[in-house]
Each structure stands twice: as structure tokens, then as C-alpha cells.
Amino acid sequence: MKAARALGLLAYLVTAPHLAQAASDVGVSLEADTLKIDVPTDSYQASGRVRMERAGVSLLADSVIYHRLTGDAEARGNIFLQKASDTLKGDRISLNLKTETGELINGELFVKSSNFRMRGERVQKTGEEDYRVERGSFTTCDGDLPSWHFEARDLKVTLDDFATARDAVFYVGKVPVLYTPYLLFPVNKERQSGLLLPRIGHSTKKGFYYIQPYYWAPTPSQDVTFDLDIESSRGVGMGWDYRYLRRGGSEGTLQGFGIYDTAAERFRGELNQRHLELLTPSVTLASDIHLITDRSYYRDFSEDTGDYNRQLLQSNVSFDKRWERYALSGEFRYVEDLVASNNNATLQNLPALSFTAAGNRLAGPLYFAMDSSLVNFQRIEGTTGQRLTLSPRLTLYQKPAGLMDLSVYGGYRQQFYNLYGAGAPGALQQSGQAEAGSTLSLPLARVYDGRYRHLMIPGLEYSYLQEPHGLGFTPFDRLDQIPGHSSLVWSVSNLVTEKIVKEGGAAEYRDLLYLKLSQGYWFTGERLNLLNLDQADLGHRLNDLMIEGKYLPTRELTIAGDGRYNTVDNDISTANLAAELHDGVGPTAKLAALGYRYSRSELSYLEGRFSLPVTSQISASVLGRYSFDKGDFLESRYSLEYKRQCWGIVATYTNRPDNKSFTVNFTLSGVGGLVPVRAF
């Protein structure tokens, strides 16, 4: 058969050489069991397993009539048209291969990138990537009876873009459940504009609420999500989340929410702005702004852990310039105390400048370093002023016997103050402290079975800091009241690394265990109370025994912790333990996490997060935050997700001491997902 079809086409091209060149220009290949050529009409008539290709578009059918000069093709029976991974199926098609326009009878369009499927009695191909269907349907579900689909009076689709539907009805199975006069639906997994699925719920503070998001991606490098928030107990609000990315890595976000709170009878809201500007590889500008209308806003409207119980709100604008051994930075920082009755006594840095010179070699192993800063402290009530800090240091590095690492340093920390306001002593003030010290360490390493390497580093560190003098006013911060001391600290650090040889001989190294023990002794000075840095721990010369470690038995499991044990009082001062289990996909895909924090007489707190697959389609997650010192849960959250091939539903119940909420989220494959923005 193949010989017959090839000979037929060859005979036509030989007898009409002028047409053979034209056929080559068109770039069409045609194969069939039977091939006839109609010279007067300049057309091919093919039947039986017909395959036609042109410019990456292939057409399979039972029979095809192709008009070479016009590019028109008429195909019947088992139509299968494919371009890249996208396909068209149907009973009959009329198509112009040059313009890629035509009409398909009883057709189905399939876009593989998003599993998008569109069906209709008459599918019109109006352009290279454009389709139109009257009284058609679409879904992202597999099967002849999809779990959900939309039916629309008029449906237009642009590949790699979106579908628009008018008079659309949403079906669950065969049951109609929702009508919308207009609908935008993304056709692939790229960023597309359109309505996202709503979030519905009820809470103690908001009452019944309905949140309808709309996603808009005007360019590949920016997008914004608008949220219409309807709350029965609070009113109607509007939120937005704008993201952008610029060439060179500069990026930022602008988020906000505003509502006229009918319960409080006033406007309430927040504004958050973040930006990172990379002016040059060594110069950056950054801003992180957070503004709220009132101090109780987060308690009434925030749903995120860490926000609704926030105690401080900080905003800053900063710049940073780096050289090989120098760095210059500046910052405007404004802090709002959400716990105090007002913000009048809160200290602000407006601005703070710092210059650092690190590791400049003077001669041989002698190095010079310099830390300096200038801070302008401002507040409404209390002492204000400026502080200039100069802290030069000389360091000598040696390697005794070629085995140990030794460093000896000496320096001076000088501070100048210009004070005014309530409590200011007047005139210029100054305070200085001499400092000196030395560190000695001995790295020891051994390899076991050619696979495990154990690195142990015992070390000693001596430090001396002169008692401060000349400070005759209430300090601004802890940098103004560092107590003088003379102390010695011993430490032992351990690191175990595993060598994994892959196929082909390539080696990969993975840290398995890190463990460090340390303890200090104060010969002179008042040792700070580690549980309250504003107080001295009188009568104790021996510091707490400190331990910190991290254990990674597998790539999926991480166990970490640190703690301080008071050997004088024979009691635990602090303890922090955490364990995380990942699914191996990424660091944010946590299956379980458990953390405990303890601070003697101050805090005893446990937090756990667990995600459990109940079945292949059902998963459950639980979050709990319990305070042992308060004897109650700070927060508990329970979620249940049911997920099918093309849709899902998530129900969440959250219980906090002052608010209880229940939320239902719906997800449809292809709707509601945001992806990272791309640079221009």
C-alpha cells in the first residue's frame, strides 16, 4: 500500500514538474492507502488511514480532499488533529492549512498542559490559537461523565490564554448548581486573569462571610489579586495583593485591606509594602512598611498565627553598600507597641547609620577592624538624642604547632551622646570600655569506613570588658549598659558528615549530626540573668551549661534543639526542641512538625502540626498551640480535604480563646492557583 501511494504521488509530480515545486513551497506531506490526483482542480483525494502534515500540524482521518493551491482540506471520519501536545477530535472537519481556520463537527478540544477539555456540536477554529463554540461545554476532568463541567451559550477559547463563557451554568455531575452571566477560565497553567473560587465561612467576630477573589495578570512580571470580603457582622471590605518583579532581581509587594466596620462604626484597615531594589551588585535599597488604622485591628481581622496576637509592629527603610572589606548601611525604623496604652514612650531609630571595616591586614598576621554607628533616637515622652559609637579592634592570628587556631584581640568601645528632653542630664555625655580577649581551638577529624567523617573542635575563649564609666542617664538600649567582666568559656563542637557515592562515581556530602556544649565562668563582673537580660544574676560565677544540636537521620526528618542548664541551682533555664518531617518534595512540604519552648518561670509552650493521608483522596491536618503556664490552648485548627482528579474541597475549623471560625474552600483544577511572576 505504501508503495502504491508513493508511486501515485511520484507520477503526478513527474508529469507536472511545475506543480512539484509549488507543493514543496507549501510544505505538505500526504500519506494514505489510496491516493488520487485531480489535475484540473489541482487537488488530492486520499482515503484509508490518511495522514497529512504541515508546519508541525498533523491530521489523521478516514478520508481527505486537499486543494493544494488554496490550502483547503475537508476530512471525514475519526478526525484527529494535533499541534504539539494539543488535539482536536471529531467526525468531520473543514480546515484551511494556511490560515489554520475551519469548523469541526461533533468536536472535542484537549489542552494537555492544563487538562482542559471543550466539547461542542460545531467547534469553529477562528485563528491559529482561537476557537469558538455555540452551546458548548468545558472541564478539566477526565471521562465522558466529568465530576464537574461548565455549559455555556457562547464559548470562546484562546490557547495559552483563557476561555470566556457567556450564560454559563456550573454542573456537579449532571446537576446544575450555579449560573453566571460571564466567566473567565484559564486554559493552561500559566498566569491568567479571572475569578478565583470563593471562600465561605463563619466566625465569632465576623459572622457569616463570603470572600470572592479576582486575579489579574496584566503582564508576565506583575499580578494582583482583589478580594471582595462580605461579613455579616462587620460590613463589606476590599483587599488587594499586588506583586511585581523587575529585571536584575528587584521585586516587591503591596498588600492592603479596608473595611467600614459596622460593629465599631469606623473605617479600619491595614497597608503592607515590601520592596527590594538592586541598584548595583553591591548597592541595595529595601523597604518593609506595615501600617494599621488602630491597635486592635489584628485581633479583630487577622487569621494568621503570629498576627492576631502580635505585640509589636515594625516598619523600616534601609540601604546597604558593600565593598570587599567594608560595608555602609542605613535604616529608618519605626516601631509601634501594640500592648502599651499608647506609643509615646516607644524608642524610634530615625535614622541609624553604621560603617564596618572587617579584616584589614596591617602586617603579617595582624588585622584591623572597625565598627561604628550613629543613631538618632526619637520618641514623644522620655529622653531623646544621638549616639555615636566607635569600636576599633586589633586581632592577631596564629597557628601554634601547625595544629591549633589562636587569635588574640584588643580594642576600645567609645560612645558619645547628645541628649535632650525629659531626664536628659544636659551637655554632651560619653562612655567608654576597653576590651581584650583570646580564642584557642584544636580541630580534630577522623573518617570511619570511608563514609563518615567526625570533626571535633574543642576550644577556649577568654574575654575581658572594662566596667563602663561616664554614663549618667537612663540608657536607650542594652548597648548602653553592657556590664564589665572577665570570663573564660570552654566549648566542644562536633560535626558528623556522611559521604554518599552516586552512580558514576560522583560524591555527595550530607551533614548528619551537629552537637555543641559550652559553659563559662565569670572571674569578675555581674553575670546577666539569661531569663531577664535587664537584671544581673548575682552570686553566680558559673554560667549555664549550654547545649545546641541538630540531627538529620534521613533527608525527610530533622530534629533540632538548644537549652541552658543552671548547674548551680540544678535546674533547666531554657529549652527549645523541634522536629520536622518532610515528604521529600521540598522544605515547605511538611507532613509533621512539633516544637516545644520552655523558659523557667516565664514560658512553657507546645506547638504541633500534622498532615495525615486518610485515604488516597482524603487528607486531614491538625494544628495545636498549647500554653502549659496558662493551662489552655492558644489555638487549635482542624482541616479535612477531599481531593479528586479535577476538584477538591477543604473544610477548616479554628478555635481561639476569643474567636471560633469555620471555613469552606473549593478548588477546581485550573482555577485558583497563583504562580511566580516573571521578570520583564
From TrEMBL:
GO cellular component: cell outer membrane; transporter complex
Signal peptide stretch: 1-22
Keywords, in A-Z order: Signal
Signal found in the keyword field: yes
Single biological process term from Gene Ontology: lipopolysaccharide transport
Segments forming domain LptD C-terminal: 267-621
One Pfam family recorded for the sequence: LptD
Family annotation (PANTHER family): LPS-ASSEMBLY PROTEIN, LPS-ASSEMBLY PROTEIN LPTD
Record protein name field: LPS-assembly protein LptD
Gene label: lptD
